[in-house]
Amino acid sequence: QTVVTQEPSVTVSPGGTVTLTCASNTGAVTSGSSANWFQQKPGQVPRSLIWLTTNKHSWTPARFSGSLVGDKAALTLSGVRPEDEADYYCLLYSGGAWVFGGGTRVTVL
Amino acid sequence: QVQLVESGGGVVQPGRSLRLSCAASGFTFNTYGMHWVRQAPGKGLEWVAIISYDGSKTYYTDSVKGRFTISRDNSDNTLHLQMNSLRAEDTAVYYCAKDPLKFGYSFGHGLDYWGQGTPVAVSS
Q: What was the pLDDT predicted at A58?
């Protein structure tokens, strides 16, 4: 049973940069894990940000970027804005199924 | 524009069945894999199932294997989730979502567009 782990919460100042990570208990996250990232604000439908580790959707703001850092997938928010305050979820493919991480709550303060 | 509209949610007793549907429009439905994702009240997201663009391959999370069946009707652009032997822990908002890659691998590449969700409550 794959377990995907994210930081429970992070706080960032407006204009700052923060990197969220996504790890798997089965080993290193690779391009084959096909990492996706999503943003969800309270009471709203999740919004897709990144797919296949680094690919942005047409609506994804330029300040969001995806990568692999060490043995984890990462989402970097640069030039953070107050409206980026939300929960962020990663999604990994592992052994015939997709698994979401528990989410990271990002507070902009 | 892409639209995904779920329906079929409601309140159901434990052990009973429910069938969810997702009406798709604004894209060539029969060329994209489709997913179901759920979110229990106050909890995180949980991936449920995926079906390949042609309906030939399906994959499920362990907790629903043998109880839920994902299917699609490419003739009327509709995705379904048949949920049997429902349990209290299946209570959630159920979202359908589209895979980003046309004619992609059967296990998919992730999610791009989401529907608004349909709530399911399993309670006696």
A: 97
